[in-house]
Specification:
Elements lengths: L12 H14 L53 H6 L7 E7 L1 H6 L1 E12 L5 E12 L8 E4 L14 E7 L5 E4 L2 E9 H6 L1 E6 L5 E6 L8 E4 L16 E8 L6 H11 L2
Parallel strand pairs: 1-5, 7-11
Antiparallel strand pairs: 2-3, 4-5, 6-7, 8-9, 10-11
Protein name: Chaperone DnaJ C-terminal domain-containing protein
Pfam families: DnaJ_C (PF01556)
Keywords: Chaperone
């Protein structure tokens, strides 16, 4: 008895080959090949092949001796991002700036020439002159500091140093400063100290005023002239006082007649 043929619903070997060929022709080859994911090592997975110890790694996961473009290739060029962490700030360079009492009282503009080390684009160090302008404000005192940021010496792997000027007071031939006040010592002969007089008093600005004294000047006597001291920085337009101390000049010798007259005049 003959069995009926087994049908494959219209598919034979020839049709199956054409069907598979049609699929390969109209579909991308990527559909048949799954992508292989790349494993990104963590920073502490870098190992030294010699001793097995961990190497330093930067924040992006690349070690000191590894290139960002090829993790297996050594990069001898310095890492820009790593160098930033090595930048240090050197201490400031301090210099004294001497000012007269007149300059500190009325203010002025001072120019200071400095010589500093500068790095060129090729990495060489050269010396360069700079002129810095400092506006001294009325009322500044000794110890006041003025800082110019980044105007000091330049060096590799470091920020430029700052230059700090410290105000110092030049000694005056007549006046001595005490805060916002000025002190002045004036010599006066004994006879004027006893009889009264008009004493010329020099002022800081170069002027002179006459001070009338009608009383007897004894040891420790002083007078205060208001508003003739140093400028007050906290209160614009105001000034301290001028304290005048009197130094009595006694005669080194007297004749017999002068002694007798002094006894009669002053008594025993």
């Amino acid at each position: 008895m003959q069995h009926p043929p087994i049908h494959n619903h219209g598919f034979n070997e020839r049709h199956e080959f054409r069907f598979r060929r049609h699929c390969f022709k109209n579909r991308s080859m990527d559909a048949f090949f799954a992508p292989v994911p790349l494993r990104i090592p963590r920073p502490n997975s870098f190992r030294n092949k010699t001793n097995g110890s961990s190497e330093n790694a930067d924040r992006n996961g690349f070690g000191e001796n590894q290139s960002r473009s090829s993790p297996c290739k050594r990069n001898d060029k310095p890492n820009m991002y790593s160098n930033l962490t090595l930048m240090v700030k050197p201490p400031p360079i301090e210099r004294n700036l001497e000012c007269t009492l007149e300059e500190l009282c009325y203010g002025c503009m001072k120019k200071v020439k400095i010589t500093r080390d500068v790095l060129t684009l090729s990495g060489q160090t050269i010396q360069e002159d700079e002129v810095l302008s400092i506006k001294v404000q009325a009322g500044w005192k000794k110890g006041t500091k003025v800082t110019f940021e980044g105007m000091g010496n330049e060096s590799p792997r470091a920020y430029a140093a700052d230059v700090t000027f410290v105000i110092t007071e030049k000694r005056h031939s007549l006046f001595r400063r005490d805060g916002d006040d000025l002190e002045l010592s004036v010599e006066i002969p004994l006879v004027k100290a006893l009889t009264g007089c008009s004493v010329p008093i020099p002022l800081l600005g170069g002027e002179t005023m006459n001070l009338e004294i009608d009383e007897i000047i004894g040891p420790g006597y002083q007078r205060v002239i208001e508003g003739q001291g140093m400028a007050n920085k906290k209160h614009e337009g105001s000034r301290g006082n001028l304290k005048v101390f009197f130094v009595i000049n006694f005669p080194k010798e007297l004749t017999c007649e002068q002694r007798a007259a002094a006894v009669i005049l002053l008594g025993d």
